């Protein structure tokens, strides 16, 4: 078993490597390495010991699995990793991780009991982190090239003992034909089903996929099986189709087009598992290419989704959210898709599903929050969403997320926090919100408290999301004396200042928020100074980033303007003349300061009179 | 980042906000070289500001492997048969039974025992095939409704509707759930499956030809057209039943309404 197992794992690694690299942004495939040199046994998965911790609130398996795998996940395990879950039946996550390669089974709440069976993590973790960084870099690159395509895969594969564990086989033409024939014309039902199962397993491999789509009549047969009255055959055929839809080869996914009308028809059915499968397949196809969407839209995908969203099944809803988010993420969405989505009943249902409460399901909420984000940031008709109560629902959802963050230490919640923050921030810029009072306003101190709790959470778990949180804070405080007063009365200035050292982007944002407060007049500046603000400002003025310095000076000017009585006698901090030690070259202003020609030009000397102190600043 | 405990209690406390402090702006505030102006900022979808969050989102999409209905893994229950009268399919998982029921028994026409994937298609079928009033009305006005939900177009004939489906909605020409009533002929020639070297294929249907036919070996009222494969009937063991007896439960109108 040893040698066979290891060979198989190498094959999986090679497959997995290609697959993830291509999936993460359509990078060109790397040159095939020498098999012998990349041969290495698959280590036991260390992630359960490091990253999983059972927690009380029942989150759907997707979020938990993400958490369990997020830091440790690597392509090495992707084909081999399967999650078994009985969550749908039992309502709580008692899934166990099955590693096809090493055949270890873990009970979810029993991680500690199994730790003894795992190797010390050590360098393996470092390797996994490295891979994750690579994937992140690939995703960033793909995003800049507007080629960000990610698909979701539903796969259940029992490593069948009898077959020796090799799951993704490459099937040749003859074998595919044989399986199709057997599935179509076999006598025994079980025999037909087995044939399709074998075909599906083969279709996990890209080569089999290619062979399949080039085989004449194969898709036709598969569609025939998909629409047969044999329930199990139908399901297996749908799974085959799902494997094909997940392919990163465009041609393979586009070959699934003949099935789309049926997939849409089945969305109005009743079998929740089947509908879930159809939705994930559709979601994968949607993201594939504009050609696919050009077919799906006239086929009525939007009304079909609008009907399906009324399903009570959480798994169906999560799948629907995924499919819809893929549809809304398309490049042509603002012109071609979002108007019809807004014209349907979808927005009301989305907002309904995002309402906080005991029925809120994290997996479902994440998907629909992203849907809402894509709709809102496209700025097609945000007033409609506001009229449906979007602002207050999102506000309450923010409170809910902040509450959840306090209750549990685990990550996964930032996946929901991020789109909610973005939606709120963008919605706040709409003119409809300017109307004073009424339900279109967020005037609550709760929102500020929630936001700061989230900022603290981000600081610990995901610092890259701090700018987004601070962006919301800017949008809240910019034109609102109410929120500025809340910041002061709730003593939030000091926590805000603690964020300054994180990064330059964060510093600029913090200073912008402080400027928002200070520019409201003397009553506000009185609460800002004296205090911890001044020493922090001395620090930011010495920053090497021109934007930080610029924003610090803006803030200083406002403070001195509204607090001229601050004296510089003994006992007050000495403000030394500042001479810029670094060349302040042509600074570009951030989005928050606004466009326009930069203020500080090289060679300029400024004499700023702040109170009774004269500052000389030389711009080098 | 130190947050005071009062903040956490503020989150759950009573809603409300303190009275805002008075705003008093000095015009000198925005004087050059200073130009700060408080303003709300919006970002479009592709802005680089969103890069980090988007990357996290896609990592999540790529990482998640969720379970699909894995029949072997479902908790097994003692074997039971389908409760619908006449259907003797046996199951050992609830999910398998659920899917079988929804596929074969949920939306079944009580007149001709055809099963449909959705209530909408069943209703359309009953209207067009079994409603004599429909036949009369259709001679005078456009009655054949487009099958796509959300499209309110109606047509004079089934063929017109099919053309509309193909042209406007890009449906396949041989869409299975839109068979015209009269034609019980063999599958269209274009449906030949090259995979099999046998005679004209039938898209893998047990019933051969009409996709909506639930039962095959117990002949429907109309004779099977020439050339259709009948070998299936012989090869299916008699113990396998496709719900052909289900009609006994559905014959009366009253029961049909219950199931709708």
Provide the succession of SSEs of chain B: HHEEEHHHEEHHHH
Largest sheet of chain A: 2 strands, antiparallel
Pairing-aware structural class of the strands and helices of chain A?
mainly alpha
Extended strand count of chain B: 5
The number of helical elements of chain B comes to: 9
Beta-strand percent range of chain B: under 5%
Percent in helix of chain B: 25-40%
Overall pLDDT level of chain B: 70
Gyration radius over CA of chain B: 31 Å
Say how many strands of chain A there are: 5
Distance between the termini of chain B: 59 Å
Shape estimate of chain A: elongated
Topology of helices and strands:
The complex is a heterodimer of chains A (620) and B (260).
Chain A: H1 2-23, H2 47-51, H3 61-70, E1 81-84, H4 87-90, E2 96-99, H5 111-114, H6 122-144, E3 153-154, H7 173-185, H8 189-202, H9 206-214, H10 218-226, H11 231-245, H12 250-254, H13 260-266, H14 272-286, H15 290-296, H16 301-308, H17 314-329, H18 333-343, H19 346-353, H20 362-377, H21 382-387, H22 390-407, H23 414-428, H24 445-461, H25 466-477, H26 481-489, H27 493-497, H28 504-518, H29 522-528, H30 533-541, H31 546-562, E4 605-610, E5 613-618
Antiparallel strand pairs in A: 1-2, 4-5
Helix pairs in contact in A: 7-8, 7-10, 8-11, 10-11, 11-14, 13-14, 14-17, 17-20, 19-20, 20-23, 22-23, 22-24, 23-25, 24-25, 25-28, 28-31, 29-31
Chain B: H1 5-12, H2 51-63, E1 65-66, E2 80-81, E3 90-91, H3 94-106, H4 119-130, H5 132-140, E4 144-145, E5 154-155, H6 158-167, H7 231-235, H8 246-250, H9 253-259
Antiparallel strand pairs in B: 2-3, 4-5
Protein name (chain B): Zinc finger protein 511
Region (Disordered) (chain B): 177-211
Domain C2H2-type (chain B): 82-105, 109-130, 146-169
């Amino acid at each position: 078993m040893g040698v066979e197992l290891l060979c198989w794992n190498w094959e999986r690694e090679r497959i997995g490597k290609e697959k993830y690299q291509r999936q993460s942004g359509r990078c060109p495939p790397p040159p095939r390495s020498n098999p012998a040199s990349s041969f290495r046994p698959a280590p036991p998965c260390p992630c359960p010991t490091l990253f999983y911790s059972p927690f009380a609130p029942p989150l759907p398996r997707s979020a938990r699995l993400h958490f369990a795998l997020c830091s440790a996940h690597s392509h090495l395990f992707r084909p081999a990793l399967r999650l078994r879950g009985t969550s749908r039946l039992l309502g709580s996550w008692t899934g166990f991780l099955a590693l096809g390669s090493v055949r270890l089974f873990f009970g979810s709440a029993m991680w500690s009991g199994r730790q003894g069976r795992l190797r010390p993590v050590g360098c393996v973790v470092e390797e996994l982190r490295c891979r994750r960084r690579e994937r992140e870099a690939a995703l960033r690159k793909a995003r800049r090239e507007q080629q960000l395509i990610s698909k979701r895969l539903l796969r259940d594969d029992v490593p069948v003992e009898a077959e020796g564990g090799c799951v993704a086989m490459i099937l040749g033409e003859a074998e595919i034909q044989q399986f199709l024939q057997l599935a179509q014309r076999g006598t025994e039902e079980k025999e037909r089903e087995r044939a399709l199962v074998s075909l599906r397993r083969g279709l996990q491999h890209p080569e089999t996929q290619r062979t399949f789509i080039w085989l004449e009549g194969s898709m036709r047969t598969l569609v025939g099986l998909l629409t047969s009255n044999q329930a199990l055959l139908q399901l297996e055929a749908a799974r085959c189709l799902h494997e094909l839809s997940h392919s990163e080869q465009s041609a393979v996914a586009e070959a699934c087009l003949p099935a789309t009308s049926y997939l849409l028809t089945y969305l109005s059915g009743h079998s929740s598992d089947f509908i879930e499968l159809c939705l994930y397949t559709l979601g994968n196809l949607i993201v594939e290419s504009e050609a696919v969407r050009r077919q799906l839209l006239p086929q009525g995908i939007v009304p079909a989704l609008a009907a399906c969203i009324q399903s009570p099944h959480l798994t169906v809803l999560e799948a629907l959210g995924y499919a819809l988010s893929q549809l809304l993420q398309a490049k042509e969405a603002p012109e071609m898709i979002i108007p019809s989505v807004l014209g349907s009943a979808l927005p009301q249902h989305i907002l309904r599903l995002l309402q906080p409460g005991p029925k809120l399901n994290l997996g479902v909420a994440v998907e629909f929050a992203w849907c809402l984000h894509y709709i809102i940031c496209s700025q097609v008709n945000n007033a409609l969403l506001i009229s449906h109560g979007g602002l207050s629902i999102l506000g309450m959802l923010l409170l809910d997320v902040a509450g959840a963050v306090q209750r549990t230490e685990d990550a996964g919640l930032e996946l929901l926090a991020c789109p909610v923050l973005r939606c709120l921030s963008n919605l706040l810029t709409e003119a409809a919100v300017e109307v004073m009072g009424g339900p279109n306003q967020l005037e609550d101190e709760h929102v500020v408290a929630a936001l700061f709790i989230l900022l603290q959470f981000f600081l610990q778990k995901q610092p890259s999301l701090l700018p987004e949180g601070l962006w919301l804070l800017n949008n809240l405080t910019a034109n609102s004396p109410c929120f500025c007063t809340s910041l002061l009365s709730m003593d939030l200035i000091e926590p805000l200042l603690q964020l300054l050292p994180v990064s330059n982007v964060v510093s600029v944002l913090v200073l912008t928020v402080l400027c928002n407060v200070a520019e409201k007049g003397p009553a506000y500046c009185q609460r800002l100074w004296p205090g911890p603000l001044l020493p922090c400002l001395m620090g930011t003025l010495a920053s090497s980033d021109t934007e930080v310095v610029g924003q610090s000076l803006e803030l200083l000017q406002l403070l001195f303007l509204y607090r001229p009585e601050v004296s510089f006698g003994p006992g007050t901090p000495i403000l030394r003349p500042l001479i810029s030690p670094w060349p302040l070259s042509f600074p570009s202003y951030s989005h928050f300061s606004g466009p326009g020609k930069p203020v500080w030009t090289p060679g300029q000397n400024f004499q700023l009179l702040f109170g009774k102190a004269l500052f000389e600043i030389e711009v080098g | 980042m130190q947050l005071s405990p009062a903040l956490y209690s503020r989150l759950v406390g009573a809603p409300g906000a303190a009275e805002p402090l008075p705003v008093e702006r000095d015009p000198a505030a925005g004087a050059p070289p200073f130009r700060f102006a408080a303003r709300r900022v919006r970002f479009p979808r592709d802005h680089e500001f969103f890069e980090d969050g988007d990357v996290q989102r896609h990592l999540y999409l790529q990482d998640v492997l969720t379970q699909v209905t894995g029949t072997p893994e479902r908790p097994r229950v003692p074997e039971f048969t389908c409760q619908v009268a006449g259907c003797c399919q046996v199951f050992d998982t609830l999910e398998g039974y659920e899917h079988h029921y929804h596929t074969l028994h949920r939306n079944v026409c009580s007149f001709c025992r055809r099963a449909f994937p959705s209530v909408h298609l069943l209703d359309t079928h009953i209207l067009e095939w079994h409603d004599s009033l429909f036949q009369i009305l259709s001679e005078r006005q456009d009655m054949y409704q487009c099958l796509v939900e959300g499209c309110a177009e109606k047509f004079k004939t089934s063929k017109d509707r099919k053309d509309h489906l193909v042209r406007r909605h890009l449906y396949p020409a041989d869409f299975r759930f839109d068979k015209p009533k009269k034609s019980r002929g063999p599958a269209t020639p274009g449906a030949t499956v090259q995979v099999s070297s046998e005679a004209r294929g039938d898209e893998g249907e047990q019933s051969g030809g009409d996709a909506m036919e639930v039962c095959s070996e117990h002949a429907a009222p109309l004779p099977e057209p020439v050339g259709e494969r009948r070998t299936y009937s012989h090869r299916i063991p008699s113990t396998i039943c496709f719900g052909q007896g289900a009609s006994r439960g559905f014959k009366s109108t009253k029961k049909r309404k219950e199931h709708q």
